[in-house]
Design a protein that fits this description.
The structure is a single chain. By secondary structure, the chain is of the alpha+beta class. It has a seven-stranded mixed sheet, sandwiched between helices. It has a seven-stranded mixed sheet with strand order 2-19-20-18-21-17-16, with helices on both faces. A six-stranded mixed sheet has the order 24-25-23-26-22-27, sandwiched between helices. Helix 10 crosses helix 17 and helix 20 runs parallel beside helix 24. It is globular, with a radius of gyration of 27 Å.
């Protein structure tokens, strides 16, 4: 599904994850090893067309794919006055029609051949990008040139996409209480004059004010060759590519109107400022400090970036260690540096723990920031932060699209392609004195902006978004659009170039052997970046919680919180010093411990992974700490319609059977979990005889064998091994239900249709998987076509096959405005019903095969993705030959098999309906259709019981 992203400084802050399954994360090698890991140069060739289009190309014969990207130097800062959100709305429209391409053709040229496309709007630029099999390159060059030169916008498309953006606004900012704060209120407070203060999403009112003529003038003004950069990377012939670029882009011209001036200079802060905001459904208050700093191209950026790394990256960072771990006053504490083209800022924030006040959090944040001004960071902290950042560069360049992105960001923010290749050197050059200098320069009390975000009440109603904001650019400054472009008659359109010869999907050979203790070891060596990934999987998960929901996830989360030789802070520091990602998580059926590290320090990383798996202590204080953090996370999750619906579905489909309980636990089950419960789960489930260890990446089979022997060879099963597995995890089939969870004031409603499904090993897996791709897998799927594209009722609708060891749960879902709930529910149910009752054409099915095959192929291109595919085969006891057979299994599915499989396993008549939203706005219309609808108030919802009460 196209996300049509609006990316802001707060993007990472908006995803409040439950801490149980989170890794202890770091991103580099230690200081002694960092010089051995080098980020290879991007290696792009550069030329400029006569019309001013900048072209960067990089050939990589090791991949079968190619990425085509066009970056335009226009972003949300360029939204005209009275039209905030306009650049982002326009981005949506760019995927519609041109003179030669009917609407949705971009999806036919990308998704339907096994690739993907997307775009994102930033403050300073908008980027459009596609990844496709290399034989489709010319077609993408043609299409990108056509929408640069002849975009078509008609009234129906304009109205539909504007409605989609409104739903995006409701989903991101009205249904998510923290997005409102970070995405709307923080920018408008940090900046007093610069247009960066306006949110990229805009507002409903200003979206309504936009007109078609505005759109056409915006395109004429900014979407021009001399304001764009074309980046192509992947497998191609350079001379042939140059010819295509000249042919399709060379004839485009620029308007006579100059680009509107937009270079507002934000004045230096006159003194400290404070602001307090209130929001509906805010479960935990937020304390935040902000400072305006420097733009991306400033020499101080590297030092500020390293400072931020010391402050908040990983569990050994200052904010986590002080506010979350030691003082336990915050459920989450972090910071975020934002470096845009014309200005920058840094925020440090704390989502307070239950019962803690924002003033306590503000005092703790001030104290941690003051340390940077008052004393030098330690050598160890400096090395960790540098190494984290350098390894992040390494991980961000695994694929051709990743490398193209790195170049694009450098060009847009710094204006210099060399800035991307100089990133590592700039970070390595930062000293402790540099960190202190920028802290004293920018992060002062006089420059500080203090913000509080609190739950609204009768005395303090929810804060409204500030919409009365002027901007440097006005509609009158835009170029005149001229004669509107229209889709030409079919016989007058330029023909889309034919695709080249198709290449076969290649899969690696997998080594498969066992250690003497019975542990199975699988090895998938790759070439490319020097990274290695390991996964150790156990046959036990949330289904085995034995009446205490959350036990498996709590056990997994505690593994990195102390062993017989290392305390939790020591583990965090060692992981971050190695530049590794090490963590664990429990799914429904399985538990997985994972590690990823640069190849030169992977042996040390695997040794640490072995220690946390084999020797955890499960200290009571660590259990108490993690339980409190998890409970705070649940409170946040249960304030949002989507997560509430997801946790309710299990009980509706499985009742009181093991699969029915929420895997993350409930607010009443988590307090009952004892240290003895956790230790018993570990003793019974974590044993080598039933475990599978998967290596992938820059490791040979011989190296993997030696590493596995050293880390796990002397480990032996305990007598209690394998005693936990739940019998009949899915339980008996239950009658369908219609459930409404009433959340008064919810900014949007979540609609989920659920049907009891199949196991991963069912003979109908591939027909159902391919059918699911047709129904709800991707932007062009039937559900998204009906709900989003045709009617603008949601930001996106999708479905998930949801296979498990026992019978899984199929879901189809969308979020929509509250009054549209009955219509969206009916559309989803209708489309599910069609799958098992109407014939599917081969013409419709062919592109969906490409979607599945393309996604599978891309998953093999990263070390973690490849390891995950291999591990999943092993978890379900499927032969490794399934890796090479995947393409054939997909291609051999017939339309008749899909129809029969849906009719047999997923009939619409057996579907349950779960809706979470403001029931007052839709319950009567819903009850007219479903007289037996059950309504449960959110504050009375009991996820420990199948009755939900």
């Amino acid at each position: 599904m196209k996300s049509r992203l609006i990316l802001t400084v707060a993007a990472s802050a908006l995803l409040f994850a439950l801490p149980v399954a989170a890794p202890v994360r770091a991103q580099t090698a230690p200081a002694a090893a960092s010089t051995a890991i080098v980020a290879p140069p991007l290696g792009f060739a550069h030329r400029v067309l006569p019309n001013g289009l900048q072209v960067y190309t990089s050939r990589d014969a090791s991949t079968s794919n190619v990425t085509v990207q066009v970056w335009y130097r226009v972003g949300s800062k360029d939204d005209p006055a009275g039209r905030s959100g306009f650049a982002h709305l326009f981005e949506h429209l760019m995927f519609k029609s041109t003179e030669n391409l009917p609407t949705e053709t971009f999806d036919r040229l990308t998704e339907d051949v096994g690739g993907f496309n997307n775009a994102s709007t930033w403050d300073d630029f908008t980027n459009y990008y596609e990844v496709v099999p290399a034989n489709h390159l010319e077609r993408l060059i043609f299409a990108e040139a056509d929408r640069m030169g002849s975009l078509v916008v008609d009234a129906d498309v304009f109205a539909s996409e504007r409605d989609v953006v409104k739903e995006e606004y409701r989903q991101s900012y009205q249904a998510n209480p923290y997005s409102r704060f970070f995405g709307l209120f923080v920018p408008q407070t940090v900046y007093e004059a610069h247009p960066y203060r306006r949110p990229g999403i805009g507002s409903i009112e200003e979206l309504n004010a936009a007109t078609i003529d505005d759109v056409r003038r915006f395109h004429a003004t900014y979407y021009r060759p001399d304001n764009a950069v074309l980046i192509v990377a992947g497998n191609f012939d350079q001379a042939q590519l140059d010819g295509w670029i000249d042919r399709y882009f060379g004839g485009l011209t620029n308007p006579a109107t100059a680009l509107p001036a937009n270079a507002v200079v934000e004045a230096e802060p006159a003194g400290p400022r404070e602001a307090t905001f209130y929001g509906a459904n805010v479960p935990l208050p937020v304390a935040l400090l902000a400072w305006r700093t420097a733009p991306y191209g400033d020499a101080d950026r590297a030092a500020l970036t390293v400072l931020d790394g010391v402050l908040s990256t990983g569990e050994s960072s200052r904010l986590y260690r002080s506010l979350v771990y030691d003082k336990q006053i915050a459920a989450q504490a972090s910071s975020s540096p934002d470096f845009a083209q014309q200005a920058g800022h840094l925020t440090a924030y704390a989502v307070m723990a239950e019962g803690e006040t924002v003033d306590t959090g503000l005092a703790a944040l001030r104290a941690e920031v003051a340390r940077f001004r008052d004393e030098l960071v330690t050598d160890a902290e400096l090395a960790e932060a540098k190494n984290e950042l350098i390894a992040d560069v390494l991980r961000s360049r695994e694929g051709v699209d990743d490398r193209a992105n790195a170049l694009g960001f450098a060009l847009m923010w710094d204006g210099d392609a060399a800035a991307a290749d100089g990133e590592v050197a700039a970070i390595q050059a930062v000293t402790a004195a540099d960190v202190q200098r920028v802290a004293r320069r920018y992060l002062t009390e006089q420059r500080m902006i203090t913000m509080r975000y609190l739950p609204a009440d009768e005395a303090h109603p929810p804060t409204e978004q500030n919409k009365d904001v002027d901007a440097p650019v006005h509609i009158a400054d835009l170029a005149l659009a001229g004669e509107p472009a229209v889709l030409l008659p079919e016989d007058q359109r330029a023909a889309i170039p034919a695709a080249g010869p198709e290449s076969d999907l290649s899969t690696p050979a997998i080594a498969d052997f066992r250690l003497d203790n019975g542990m199975r070891v699988l090895v998938a060596p790759t070439e490319g970046v020097p990274l290695v990934s390991a996964r150790l999987n156990f046959d036990a998960g949330a289904r085995d919680d034995a009446g205490k929901p959350g036990l498996a996830q709590m056990t997994a989360g505690l593994l990195t919180q102390g062993t017989t030789t290392r305390a939790a802070p020591e583990i965090a520091a060692e992981i971050e010093g190695l530049g590794a990602n090490v963590g664990a998580g429990a799914g429904v059926d399985f538990t997985s411990v994972f590690a990823n590290a640069p190849a030169n320090v992977f042996p040390q990383t695997l040794a640490l992974m072995s220690d946390v798996v084999r020797n955890p202590t499960f200290a009571q204080e660590e259990l108490d700490r993690l339980r409190d953090q998890t409970l705070d996370g649940l409170r946040v999750q249960l304030s949002q319609p989507g997560p509430v619906a997801s946790q309710t579905v299990g009980r509706v489909i499985y009742g009181d059977a093991p699969y029915g309980a929420p895997g993350g636990g409930t607010t009443t089950s988590l307090p009952t979990i004892t240290r003895e419960d956790v230790a018993r789960f570990h003793a019974e489930a974590f044993n080598p005889g039933e475990a599978t260890l998967v290596f992938s990446g820059a490791v040979t089979v011989e190296q993997a064998r030696a590493l596995a022997e050293q880390a796990f060879g002397d480990w032996r099963d305990r007598p209690s091994a394998g005693d936990r597995n739940a019998a009949d995890a899915a339980g008996p089939a239950l009658a369908p239900r219609v459930i409404v969870i009433d959340q008064p004031g919810a900014g949007q409603a979540a609609v989920v249709v659920a049907v009891r499904g199949v196991s991963r090993t069912d003979a109908d897996y591939f027909p159902l998987a391919l059918g699911n791709t047709l129904l709800g897998g991707g932007y062009s799927s039937r559900l998204n076509q009906e709900v989003r594209i045709k009617r603008g009722l949601s930001y996106g609708a999708s479905s998930n096959l949801g296979v498990r060891v026992d019978e899984g749960v199929f879901t189809a879902s969308a979020q929509t405005r509250n009054d549209a709930v009955p219509a969206v529910a009916e559309l989803i149910l209708s489309e599910i019903g069609r799958m098992g009752t109407e014939a599917i054409s081969e013409a419709e099915l062919g592109p969906r095969r490409a979607v599945m095959l393309g996604g599978f192929g891309r998953s093999l291109e990263t070390v973690d993705g490849l390891g995950g595919v291999v591990a999943n085969l092993a978890l379900y006891d499927l032969p490794m030959s399934e890796l090479a057979a995947y393409a054939g299994n997909v291609r051999n599915v017939t339309p008749e098999q899909i129809e029969a499989a849906f009719a047999r396993h997923l009939p619409g008549s057996e579907a349950s309906l779960v809706i979470v939203g403001d029931a007052a706005q839709f319950i009567e219309a819903l009850r007219a259709k479903y007289p037996n609808v059950e309504v449960v108030a959110l504050d009375a919802l009991n996820l420990n019981s199948a009755t939900l009460r």
